[in-house]
Amino acid sequence: MSGSSSALTHSLDVSASAQGPLSGARFVVKENIDVEGLVSANGQPTWAATHAPAAMNAPVVDRLLACGARLVGKAHMDEMAYSLLGANAHYGTPVNPAAPDRHPGGSSSGSAAAVAAGLADFALGTDTAGSCRAPAAFCGIYGFRSSHGAICVNGVVPLAASLDVIGWFARDIDLMARVGDALLPRDLTQGAFDEAVFLDETFAQCDAETAAAMAPARAIVAQGFSERDAALGEEFWAESLRHFRNLQAYEAWDAHGAWIAAARPQFGPGIAERFDMASRVTPAAKAEADAFRRDGRARVAAMFGENSLIVVPTTPFVSPRLGESEEALDAKRYQMFRTFLFASFFGLPQISVPLSRPAGAPPLAISLIGPRWSDRRLIAAARGLSGL
User: Fold this and answer.
1) Using alpha carbons only, how large is the chain's radius of gyration in Å?
2) How far apart are the first and last CA of the chain?
3) Distance of CA 225 to CAs 176, 220, 384, Å?
4) Whole-prediction pTM value?
5) Mean pLDDT, the chain, as a whole number?
6) Is 276 helix (H, G, I), strand (E, B) or coil?
7) Which residue of 122, 277, 302, 314 could cross-link 365, Cys pair, CB 3.0 to 4.6 Å?
8) Which residues does the annotation mark as catalytic?
9) What is the SS3 assignment for 27?
10) At residue 2, does pLDDT exceed 60?
């Protein structure tokens, strides 16, 4: 495993408009998002060697430039975007500015680390199964996953098309909202959220340190909303995880299997095993996952009242230390799926809000999840939480 690395793969200075709602704000983009003239390396050296430089910017990049933001770099990422911890066997692990002895989270590792370090004011990432939410929690900043389909993903290297979305990071909620104003469509419904639904099974899996931090955070959330608890049952979670893994893997192999067979890249620990598993997911298993998700949407929709949001811990533990074994890290990766799977599988927006922590303590975060197409309302709800 390579050692530590900078958060950025390229330093840039690109601007298209002197004036706009994001004037003066510096941003970086994850390596799998196209910037004209640069190869979107996707965290993989063979990928970088077998793909041409981008002929144009991804539309999301042009939109931000048109709003006055200044592009200052491309950021490191986990290999092929197929992990959650931030370690890349080829390019190293970006330093987590909030906890240098711990993982920064992935796969949007460099984007989060750049914002946490002050190298950029905000950063674009992508999120398939937690890739903006994990690094936001581990680096102590805000992180957002948009509703599936809310923001154009043209010019973005895919991982799993029905799960992939654009997300972003910032150190303060005001800038999170300004970026949202630039990128997001109008919400499907209007009005403020007034009910918080605490998803029991996600809080139950927290370790002792996280549970202790969640108790006062839950109390603060409850001050701004009416509250109720909800549970989906262990059978739902077990079935969800199985179908989610099959769906993600099938779509990842559909996106990259032909290239893997032709280029024969050398993958790092964990990535090779995931693509090997992906190559063996059958069309029948994918169809079962599609059916489960289709049926599950009605149950998920029923959890939301007219103006309800769902509350979960962003992660059930603080970021793992850099020296932990591959086996321990992989186990933690799967532990995190419960807090990420819900929004990913059903195409929902989720915002990770950092918690106040004692000096020297590693970051933790709590998340709000809204119905699909409630992205702007969700960011506004997070803005209303003070004292977390």
Assistant:
1) 19
2) 36
3) 22, 9, 10
4) 0.97
5) 95
6) helix
7) 314
8) 30, 107, 131
9) strand
10) no
